Amino acid sequence: MKAARFYNKGDIRIEDIPEPTVAPGTVGINVAWCGICGTDLHEFMEGPIFIPPCGHPHPISGESAPVTMGHEFSGVVYAVGEGVDDIKVGQHVVVEPYIIRDDVPTGEGSNYHLSKDMNFIGLGGCGGGLSEKIAVKRRWVHPISDKIPLDQAALIEPLSVGHHAYVRSGAKEGDVALVGGAGPIGLLLAAVLKAKGIKVIITELSKARKDKAREAGVADYILDPSEVDVVEEVKKLTNGEGVDVAFECTSVNKVLDTMVEACRPTAKVVIVSIWSHPATINVHSVVMKELDVRGTIAYCNDHAETIKLVEEGKINLEPFITQRIKLDELISEGFERLIHNNESAVKIIVNPNL
Predict the structure, then answer these.
(1) pLDDT tens per residue across span 231-281
(2) What is the distance between the alpha carbons of residues 149 and 303, in angstroms, rounded to a whole number?
(3) Could you tell me the CA-to-CA distances from 350 to 2, 268, 306, 353 in Å, in that order?
(4) Where would I find the Enoyl reductase (ER) domain in this sequence (predicted)?
């Protein structure tokens, strides 16, 4: 079968590899669609990062480069391993793509996403969604309604990142939120916030991303920091108080500064983006306003609620898909487009079986 294999920075090859073995306790999935994540792009441009370098196997998967890529994917079950009796062949599914030790608890209230040596399917090994087929442990397979188109279902994984950020924020219906950055995660986070009855203000420079936020209907107000003083505009929109919660989604220090200044006293600032460089923060403002600054990473028992939001029609994922490509076009139409024209691309999805 065809698969996209990461060898090293700038070196991803489309190769023929053996089909996976559907072992006891696993589910065999025909991959329908797989999204290209910002993490995948960073691996291509700067890696290996999450991917174990050649000769340095991951302590759980036992794999190192080359590995099959892709962790945002949907598909159809083609086989179930011994002991799996609650999933049937033909069911539509998405995957929560974790690589976690078998003895780590994953029930309600656990923090398995923070466990030692955690990694992701499609990065740390265990196959990936940028292949025709994959076998995944039952724990990480989530059935979805056939009414959710499989191309849209591939966005449930990044949508779950947004849902976890919302959970971390403690935001509630009627609150006002400021989202800094309308990239893929910022937009999907805003969709979750709107679905939860929260008023959303987005700050964004890019015209294409502002247009996408308007098209998707995920913002009540969109502010361009090159045109207005975001903090002053936020205060006008909140009767001089500031927002209840702010989400930083850019890894740009100026945006983080804006989030802090735009918050009302006792508000929360949630840092969603992955920072590859040190940042500064106005600690005086944090102290004087008693702000709560917290981080968020990936998801932890978020998929069920995220899927429910989509199945109930509270979130429409169609507007966020900006391109559909074949696996053979992964570099030319996927990575290269994201490198050179990322503002116009929200989510590029790949069909490995075309």
Answers:
(1) 999 999 999 999 999 999 999 999 999 999 999 999 999 999 999 899 999
(2) 17
(3) 13, 36, 22, 9
(4) 10-350
